ethanolamine kinase
Amino acid sequence: MYFAARLAGLWHSVSVARPCDISLRIHLRSVGVWYRMDGLTRYGYGGGCGTARPARLEAQANHYRNMIHCDYSKELEHTITLEPKFLGPQLRDHLRLQLYRQVEGTCNGRYGYIVAIVAVDHIDSGVVQDSFGSVAFAVRYTAVVLKPYKNETVDAIVATVNKMGFFANLGPLQLIPGDFKFEPGSVPPCYMSEEQNVKISPGDMVRLKIVGTRIDATEMFAIGTRLVSNIQYSNTPTPQYSNAPILQKHSNSLTKPNALLLQPIMHESLESCSHLAHRKTPSLSALETFVLGKVPLHDYVVAHNDLMASCKTLLCRVFPTWNVSQVEFVQFVKCINKELDTTVLIRAYGKKSELIIDRMAELTNFVTLSKAELSPPLYARFTNGFVYGYIEGRPFSVPDMSDPKLSQLVARKVAVWHKLYRAGGKEANLFRTLWKWFKGIPASYPVKETQSIFEQNVNIGYLKLELERLELTLSALKSPIVFCHNDLLSGNIIYEEEKNDVEFIDFEYGCSNYRGYDIANHFCEFAGFQCDYSLYPTREQQLPWLAAYWKQYYGRPATDVEIEALYVEVNLFTLASHFYWGLWGLVQALFSDIPFDYMSYAVMRFKQYEASKKRCFNLLDTNKSS
């Protein structure tokens, strides 16, 4: 079931999206709200973001602005010198590699640690160095930096415990506790409080308040106090980041200062986040830690069996200036709310959806895209969902997907997404996800009708052989690995008529992936959720779309040879799209409590895989012979 909520009687109808989570819509009208994003305090009033605000609320805005002591994202410059042997077609790749090696993990007095490079913004023309023949390039880039200040509260996940102290990942952060005793005989090793009521083990989360810092040329030091009442344990489902009340001093909760040493995490150690849903203990990359640390987290669970009351309670926490008595929730029985007006949305995660969707990656996508002005703001997180902003416009209909003018807008926007750099994305996620889902197919389903459809239509051994063949064939195409949306169905595309532009929403499947897959999956969605594949775009429809994409991505028109190669690449990846959503349906059929026939949908996608296989592989053979 799906719900929307309105304030002052404003709401609109809905359109279809892939069923997974529960979304609610809350309308804003002349209501002041605050939120933190990208290291800045932004302010919305009267349903939009602006600079004007009532004087009575100015103090509140300044209070939250002062809570953020530094901008975690900085635009910086670095000079890289390359030997002549690197001056070739792969020049930019060599420059990026050297930038990562030379910059990430370094420390300077102005910005602190440079934790992760998130974008290479510009590379100047090289200057030849006299007598040596080397070439120096000035590179401007955007990076995540860490420079905690006095009175700032930070969270860290304990990674290692030994007799010297415990070592936790903030940067990582090294802490030697003063009132805990090391227990070497414990498995795993731990620190135990003198009262024997608090234990610190690998995987636990600790919360610290910094009371002093010092930075030299290569290291950052800090003195911090531990808030004992806020130590998190290894069974905590998600990290608990600080909110406004944490920053207040409470004499009964502070212990004596402990020595802290902040150290960098190198780019090579940035961890892929595709399996976080299956980890007993959360493990965050540097980018995830610092990005999500800027988004308030409320320790609150929205109850699916009492959504309206739960969400009203949540609204009081996220937007304390709202008059919640004016909020009206409207239930929609068919689909997730997608038509966005002057609105904020509450999304409550679906049952067991973490087995399908990497929620930490989804939130990181939100903040990364918001920084690039490709998504609405993320206002707050709660235990089983999040609250986020809106994009004005109307969602695409299925006929809009093939409209010649509108489809050109989508092609160019996809290219913009594909040019976006997201740290930690060196490998395509496609086959890692497919194999994970394949291994998650159950031996049987508890619902008799579902099991019957499964037995009559699904052959696990055959699926395994086809997946192996698909991986071998598509990996050989060398499709570029880019940041992909991976779910561009009509309901996830918003048309802004006044701007004559489109925006994409819902980033839960977004990750580094093959270019060909993202485009192919979008083409498959021309068929709509009823899977009418007679609507799949013809060659004549695809070529203008691909040409618009190419020109936006590369800044020049494509040659006939390039367009033909891209056409073959994309159409081969349609097989992966059918396989992907087929496996998705098999896993969802076991866990989801949303009234949708996942098993029949999975069978439909696998049948289309079989129907498309011969045509797609013929394209590959024709391309090789030519």
Summary: The CA atoms of residues 229 and 253 lie 6 Å apart. Residues 1-17, 22-71, 227-284, 331-342 have pLDDT under 50 and may be disordered.
